[in-house]
């Protein structure tokens, strides 16, 4: 198994295709796959070969470029090429409904398609150039998030995180785990408690994989244990990622995050969300408007292909829940840490106002 470290790119445009880590194989195998077509990228996003809101966004942008390459082979007029490519872009944006970064990145590609004056080959080159820009921007943004977040991490802190918001959920470095990495670089007594994150176990499979490979002390716990360790005084703060944040600060993240936030509030433990501004959807007022993805029942009833419950049992499997803004101490972004009132601080952040701690 190849060794992971935070400098590895999770997804990258190479020549005329997209190269990404197949996250369905972790931690048993670390393997790159080449995505060479638009439908293949749609399926890779849908089946979580690539996952994590920022990484999904970049994947969506790659997917639009892949569709453009395919349509260029059909001898279409420029007008028909643009029309069909915009339709393909809209289709790509439907591969996962909750992570707004996907729609955001696809929209950036659509702007290029609609505004370019170039010929078909020129449009493709512009789309590919934007893929590379989005990749580089993601890493730079995550490092800023990490540095801002590290400033509120107490010395010797134990940080609880839920799901995976690390280098493998982004192009590199990570959002919530970017905070951990930046804090650990300053204070190597920092440690992490990672929730396993049922049903797909991203915490167990991916977060512990990333952090142990980077030499950051990590303890794996089951999802139901967080309040036990909080009561014992063994958790100092919580940092999680997000897939979509409403204008009022309500934040959608992997199912179970809301439970962690409630427990943290009860035990007076600060609960932070780390996410780029591209995760904030100012078009929706509250988290009630966030579409929650309903995923396959097999994710709950099976582990490694083996059924773990009565075959006839009913299953409901929402992929995400929404943490109300009242439970969030701060939203760590590339422009600083946003604080309540979130309607105001989010509006200011989008107005290019640099916010300090």
Gist of the model:
It contains 11 helices and 16 strands. The chain is of the alpha/beta class and 357 residues long.
Keywords:
Rossmann fold, 11 helices, 2 domains, 7-stranded mixed β-sheet, 357 residues, globular, alpha/beta
How would you describe what is shown here?
This protein has 357 residues and is an alpha/beta fold. It has 2 domains: 11-141, translation initiation factor eif-2b, domain 1 (Four Helix Bundle (Hemerythrin (Met), subunit A)); 146-350, Rossmann fold (3-Layer(aba) Sandwich), CATH 3.40.50. It contains 11 helices and 16 strands. It has a 7-stranded mixed beta sheet with strand order 6-5-4-7-10-15-16. It has a 4-stranded mixed beta sheet with strand order 11-8-9-14, with helices on one face. A hairpin with a 2-residue loop joins strand 15 and strand 16. Helix 1 (38-46) packs antiparallel against helix 2, helix 2 (53-71) packs parallel to helix 4 and helix 4 (100-115) runs antiparallel to helix 5. The N and C termini lie far apart (40 Å). The mean pLDDT is 95.
What's the architecture of the largest domain, going by CATH? 3-Layer(aba) Sandwich
CATH superfamily of the largest domain: Translation initiation factor eif-2b, domain 2
| N-to-C order of helices and strands | EEEHHHHHEHEHEHEEEHEEHEEEEEH
Briefly note the structural class of the backbone. alpha/beta
Number of domains: 2
Number of helices: 11
Query: Compute the gyration radius: what is it?
Result: 20 Å
CATH class category of the largest domain: Alpha Beta
Shape: globular
Largest sheet: 7 strands, mixed
* Strands, count: 16
Q: What's the end-to-end separation, in Å?
A: 40 Å
**pLDDT averaged residue by residue:** 95
Low-confidence stretches: none
Strand content: 15-25%
């Amino acid at each position: 198994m190849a060794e992971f470290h935070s400098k590895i790119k999770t997804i990258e445009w190479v020549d005329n295709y997209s190269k990404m880590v197949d996250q369905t194989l972790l931690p048993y195998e670390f393997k790159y796959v080449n995505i060479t077509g638009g439908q293949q990228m749609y399926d890779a996003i849908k089946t979580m070969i690539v996952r994590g809101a920022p990484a999904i966004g970049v994947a969506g942008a790659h997917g639009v470029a892949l569709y453009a390459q395919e349509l260029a082979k059909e001898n279409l007029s420029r007008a028909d090429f643009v029309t069909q490519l915009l339709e393909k872009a809209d289709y790509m944006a439907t591969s996962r409904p909750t992570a707004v970064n996907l729609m955001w990145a696809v929209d950036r590609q659509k702007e290029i398609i609609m505004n370019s004056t170039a010929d078909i080959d020129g449009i493709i080159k512009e789309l590919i150039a934007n893929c590379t820009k989005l990749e580089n921007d993601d890493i730079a943004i995550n490092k800023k998030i990490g540095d801002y977040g590290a400033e509120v991490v107490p010395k010797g802190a134990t940080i609880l995180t839920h799901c995976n918001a690390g280098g493998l959920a982004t192009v590199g470095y990570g959002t919530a785990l970017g905070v951990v990495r930046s804090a650990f670089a300053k204070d190597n007594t920092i440690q992490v408690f990672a929730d396993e994150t049922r049903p797909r176990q991203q915490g167990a499979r991916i977060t512990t994989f990333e952090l142990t490979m980077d030499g950051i002390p990590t303890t794996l716990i089951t999802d139901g244990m967080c309040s036990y360790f909080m009561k014992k005084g063994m958790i100092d703060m919580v940092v999680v990622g997000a897939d979509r944040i409403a204008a009022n600060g309500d934040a959608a993240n992997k199912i179970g995050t809301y439970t962690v936030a409630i427990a943290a509030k009860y035990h007076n433990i600060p609960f932070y969300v780390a996410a780029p501004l591209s995760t904030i959807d100012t078009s929706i007022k509250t988290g009630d408007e966030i579409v929650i993805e309903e995923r396959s029942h097999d994710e709950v009833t099976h582990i490694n292909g083996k059924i773990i419950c009565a075959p006839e049992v009913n299953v409901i499997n929402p992929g995400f829940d929404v943490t109300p803004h009242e439970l969030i101490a701060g939203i760590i972004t590339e422009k600083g840490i946003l604080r309540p009132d979130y309607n105001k601080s989010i509006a200011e952040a989008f107005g290019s106002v640099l916010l300090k701690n």
